[in-house]
Amino acid sequence: MSIKVLASELPNIPWQERPAGCDRYIWRHTGNPVIGRRPFPGARSVYNSAVVPFNGKFIGVFRLDYEEVLPAIHIGHSDDGLIWKLDEKPLPFLSCPADKRETEYGYDPRIAKIDDAYFVHWCNGYYGPTIGIAKTRDFKTFEQLENAFLPFNRNGVLFPRKIGGFYGMLSRPSGPGHNAFGDIFYSASPDLTFWGRHRLVLERGASRWQRTKIGGGATPIETSEGWLTIYHGVMDTCNGFVYSAGAMLLDLDEPWKVIAKKAGPILWPETDYETVGHVPNVVFPCAALVDSATNRLAIYYGAADTHIAVAYTTVDALVDEIKKG
Ligand code: BMA
């Protein structure tokens, strides 16, 4: 192990060794999907969700689609990061804190721990999708901040510390529907309220698997080689979009600069639970757990807009692949 990961140790990170005969640097949890259809009555699917270590166990924010396909965000608890108990009541977020209006919808949540607070951020319905942010320390009470951007924007992904004195966020400016465009931008903020200094990070179209749109995925992981950044890329086909996961390294001080990028996807829809579901052919990463003692990495991703799955690799193996291009 040569790469330094600037994160806490996580001895209880979910983990399985690479199976015998596996010829890739990343492999799927054998018990996938870890959360399946109908997590509780009235909910049809759970996917595109984020988890973090919390008080020696794990906590997560989950995208639940109800039977009528309205998405909302629910808390979930787990002892081992694999078996989850989801709250049946959604988090009471607002579409805009100043308006005090209930959110139209909330989906694709992420969590970043910055200093000693957790920031849940998600795609928040306010005249179209934008990025909502809420701060918590205990996942019981939340202080909702202003939306980060004007609609339409998706896939806000906060960095886990200030960079050059500013909070940083990746996002994908978009349109109101399932637009066939999207690139990754970086924005900075002194206070998590006012955002500016917008910079292009990566444009779609670099290769076929991500030719239609790309967006942030997991909270970037700080390493001695740069910010290890797992993202999603989308291609159009004759029969709809295909979503895959990609990986790149961003500059530690100027994270809009790509140091290196894996040319191909690291994970793409192959299994039944990724190719069959509400939306077939979707692998959508939203979180990654890391143990800085072993550099083990557990990547959480939504599968086919229906389930949640986990894949394993190590920081060293992934960075090595990224550097190969
Ligand atoms: C995007 C979002 C994601 C979803 C994806 C594929 O626009 O809705 O949550 O996973 O489409 O359906």
Characteristics of this structure?
4% helix; globular; 2 helices; Tachylectin-2, Chain A; five-stranded antiparallel beta sheet; 325 residues; mainly beta; binds beta-D-mannopyranose; 23 strands; single chain
Please characterize this protein's 3D structure.
The chain is mainly β and 325 residues long. The protein has one domain (29-324): Tachylectin-2, Chain A (5 Propeller). Helix content is 4%, strand content 47%. It has two helices and 23 strands. The protein has helices at residues 272-275, 315-324; strands at residues 27-28, 43-54, 57-66, 71-78, 85-86, 94-96, 101-102, 106-114, 117-125, 129-136, 143-144, 153-158, 167-173, 184-189, 196-202, 213-216, 221-223, 226-237, 240-250, 258-261, 283-291, 296-303, 307-314. The strands form six sheets. Strands 16, 17, 18, 19 and 20 form a five-stranded antiparallel beta sheet that branches. Strands 1-23-22-21 form a four-stranded antiparallel beta sheet. The chain has a four-stranded antiparallel beta sheet with strand order 2-3-4-5, with no helix packed on it. It is globular. Beta-D-mannopyranose is lined by residues 48, 107-108, 178, 243, 279, 282, 284, 302, 305. Beta-D-mannopyranose binds at residues 48, 107-108, 178, 243, 279, 282, 284, 302, 305.
